[in-house]
């Protein structure tokens, strides 16, 4: 028997596979047994009720997808009364994803969801900071520091900061989040993209642009997860384009201690459970007794110098 | 009205198993006319407890020429637990349906379903009427099967560009439905003629419920007639889908619930909605 | 007959399809007639001789590729004596791509290649600025301004600035390049990515990381091309993931006046000529008399507000 | 030595047409043993002017299970302008070759070639010797055909794990080559035994040139023997490839040219190089 448990700071997960925020809900219990997941991660909520973006909210691009769902939200009260109790029927850590357009609002909802039954709070800082220039908090180390410090003082629960691949300062933002008290990093959110319907000449998304997710994102998010794992001491949770067990193993070798599966669940709703079985077999056949033996085992000695040139794609 | 039927999600239980991702085998995949094809699958019992109006989310094959990524939603055209059979009637439009069209007998196809909330047939609804055009036939066809099973009278008004693309007439007739066909070519498919046909049905033998699918024109027509005669109705709607299960919230549409505009997920609260709450788009 | 010509500033191209730097060389003349291309764009050269990165220099990721070729270069002298004369046998504008690790060096090679037979200079500013923190010039508006100003005073030839998708400041960098005198923008270069061989646990590229190119890059580069076309007055040349005529039409609708085709040529060496034929038929069947009628015809009125939230993928 | 044969690129002329991207049709694709398959294609004349040691860059099919992206380089195993035929002998290793293995008679396959610089057979080389192991056989096999055409004597030393995976023995014999087999199972494939066999060949009837492929061990052995007896040699090398045409510079390897280390493109200056300049890796 291999040991699949993994530690994210003070939290121990039975296994490293969990859903990505916004690609999972109570509804999935119709297809699979939610007990089997390492954690439950809910769709980002905001304090107030919100409608989300205009439709169409998704479109397909070659082998991947774009979405501009936005953050439709029934509000924090509805969430506390309905969603938390649903998940508390499972003996699986519940991770609540939150967001807001200003640091104070962010801190407020963070405090509001710091209730029994919640194991950790994922802070989706990839949303626009409307008090500044509208760029997402996670775009710059300075705004990351500002919001993370407020969040830190708003809750004693573990805080997972979810980074954005839209920044050119991945390492600086990761360090800022760590410094300001994040307990883990989730790497990464979707990447700003666009598609146009050549027949109507309209953007394929009602919101003009949206986030790329799925296999196309993987080499980018993997690079970020590696950069973060090399740079910070806190755990990194890999997220982006995972759809095979090889993808998961790649993230673990790169230094992630757990992974989130998003878009792949839309293609194969059972995939998280399938991947868990495959991961267990993989470790067995490779004679790896414990998941932690795999984590961060990348053999990058030869290439160590190159890390300096991290922003140097030709 | 449709909301009352909503599945309630599992409560700390193992997968509550109303929906399954299964591998099926193609029995046949034949052209119906120049645009439409009928796909018949050998499917496990687990997915054959269907209701008219529900749909499946189909993982179209990947070929050298077509590489669809997301699943494609398709209404259930036919289902039979006895025969272990599931049928889809689809129009070849883009990458996914072109890939579907390449399937031949013996090929495997991964489908997820049954999904969503189907049509209601209340116990006291004896005279059913449906108004279908184009691919809407696929969605409405199972109502004929269900009407026969429940011993209800069904009038199916089938509209098309011309006789050549009129489909499923025999299917409806075989299931005991009365079929009225209208076509653009004959100039019989216009709104006013449709209104007259329906009004005559109401006058002749009464209509307890009206079903339709898809188009704005038909929605408005049935909303008007329904309001005038106080006849309930249901409409199956479409929207782009990613998950098909209610998780991603991409498939929302606006509905007018007693003056309040709400957004509902077509895959989950629908695809069938009350005709009075549906909004033209 | 449709009019396929397109203007990039003072330069008129017979058609909008040209190769991307580094994915094209004299060798392609064995497979296709180089006369048919809108322009010839050469692999980036540096002043001195350079060896390039360690092998493996390429690897495959789902439906796309990573490369870390680096910039092996036989030096500017060899280039002037051998490469320029080869292309001058064709009546097609020659675009020479150059790079350097400091602004002064950059200006020097820019001057050196400003010779008869060269129609424009593409400046690959996606290379590390070793005098600063090693981040590429194109990562920030300030470094872009600095290098572009020096380049501008070094040559009278049209200067095309090639942007990087690694930055979080696409629009600011584009504006900086325009302001400093760029005659066109090429959008974009490859995106920093990584892949790990799970069997050896080594990075798949000898250089640890490399640039993503091919279909996966398209929605990202298209978004950038759109952002740039909306923001600057100079022409934008779209580049990234083009492999079908629909891709080209999408870039044109988004506002690009020409396109570069890179990785797709590795998959189908004839593709640029094939695409040219398909583009011509497309315009004919759509009754579009001139390419320029398509350029920038995106119908984004409904979504205009969203432009504000450009960095806001959820 | 191989550099002299380099194609010179076109000079302002239309495509000079030494290389073509063509659609071929699969004639057969049969297992040779547990690991290797032989693919026979119906190919147009334009690509059949091949030389032993050259290769094609193959666009492997995309299937539901395998989605290779880049082309895959494969040595020419057989070519015949008369029969309009092209053959590849390949080992099923990863995504691309697994996809290749799914091809059946009548399927289309896009190939690009012939590419690269092949083996040299100088006019005064009468006694040829080749040393092949595993997939190296695929690369070296056409030398037998060419040797027969040019009326040269060829000794082929074929090495393998065991008798079961020894391939192409009959192929070599049918083309008049003398075949010496060695296997790990019999304990005959070790370096010292190979050295002895080659030394005996040199002593018995002289060897004018030695050819090999792939492995470091064999490279060093032939470098040593070649230096000792002043016998030239050539080796076909492999490297990851993207374009296969010389454009991307990803396929470089280091060579020792009279003490200077240079980098050459395997796809363009190779894949065949002089054995004295090749460097172990
Ligand atoms: C609940 C429901 C039931 C349906 N039932 C049927 C049916 O029985 N027969 C039938 O022929 N068609 C049906 N459709 C429409 C069918 O889903 C689309 O025709 C199909 O997805 C087109 O895919 P494509 O790849 O061929 O086309 P493309 O245009 O290439 O598709 C591109 C993307 O847009 C989506 N899309 C395109 N058209 C529609 C649409 N009308 N509705 C939702 N998404 C769309 C696709 O799913 C895909 O993600 C139904 C749609 C829904 C929502
Ligand atoms: C000039 C040349 C001639 C060759 N001739 C033959 C032959 O006749 N028969 C045969 O079986 N094999 C031959 N090979 C090796 C063959 O190209 C690889 O086995 C094949 O590319 C593996 O692809 P894959 O997708 O199955 O494996 P994967 O390991 O999944 O391939 C992943 C990537 O690595 C590349 N790759 C993997 N192995 C090699 C290799 N040895 N050399 C270069 N690239 C590689 C692939 O092309 C692909 O891009 C030759 C290689 C070269 C360079
Ligand atoms: C439809 C959709 C909705 C999403 N909503 C959220 C969200 O609300 N909050 C969030 O942090 N990330 C959201 N994401 C991003 C995912 O959590 C994940 O970071 C991203 O999709 C990359 O992973 P993947 O490639 O496995 O999907 C969403 C992604 C998708 C596709
Ligand atoms: C093998 C390879 C080498 C490249 N070399 C260069 C280069 O030297 N200079 C440069 O500006 N871009 C270089 N690029 C980037 C391409 O020019 C192009 O911007 C990128 O590949 C995106 O386009 P594509 O998706 O069509 O390939 C290279 C790309 C590849 C794949
Ligand atoms: S398609 Fe995902 S919620 Fe309806
Ligand atoms: S594979 Fe591109 S240069 Fe050799």
UniProtKB/TrEMBL annotation, chains A, C:
First-listed, main subcellular location of the protein, grouped into a coarse class: cytoplasm
Pathway this chain belongs to: Pyrimidine metabolism; UMP biosynthesis via de novo pathway
Sequence ranges assigned to domain Dihydroorotate dehydrogenase catalytic in this UniProt record: 4-283
Keyword Membrane recorded: no
Annotated PROSITE patterns: DHODEHASE_1 (PS00911)
Binding residues for substrate: 43, 67-71, 124, 189-190
Binding positions (FMN): 21, 43-44, 124, 162, 214, 240-241, 262-263
GO CC term (a single one): cytoplasm
Cofactor names: FMN
Compartment(s): Cytoplasm
Cofactor binding description: Binds 1 FMN per subunit.
UniProt EC number: 1.3.-.-
Example GO molecular function: dihydroorotate dehydrogenase activity
Its biological purpose: Catalyzes the conversion of dihydroorotate to orotate.
HAMAP family, alphabetized: DHO_dh_type1
PANTHER family for this protein: DIHYDROOROTATE DEHYDROGENASE (FUMARATE), DIHYDROOROTATE DEHYDROGENASE (QUINONE), MITOCHONDRIAL-RELATED
Protein name: Dihydroorotate dehydrogenase
Gene for this chain: pyrD
UniProtKB/TrEMBL annotation, chains B, D:
Ranges annotated as biased composition (Polar residues): 15-29
Family: Belongs to the PyrK family.
Gene Ontology process terms (BP): pyrimidine nucleotide biosynthetic process
Protein known as: Dihydroorotate dehydrogenase B (NAD(+)), electron transfer subunit
Domain FAD-binding FR-type: start-end pairs: 19-121
Domain of life: Bacteria
Gene from which the chain derives: pyrK
Annotated InterPro entries: Cbr1-like_FAD-bd_dom, Cyt_c3_hydrogenase_gsu, Dihydroorotate_DH_ele_sf, Dihydroorotate_DH_Fe-S-bd, FAD-bd_FR_type, FNR_nucleotide-bd, PyrK_electron_transfer, Riboflavin_synthase-like_b-brl
Pfam families given in the database record: DHODB_Fe-S_bind, FAD_binding_6
Cofactor binding annotation: Binds 1 [2Fe-2S] cluster per subunit.
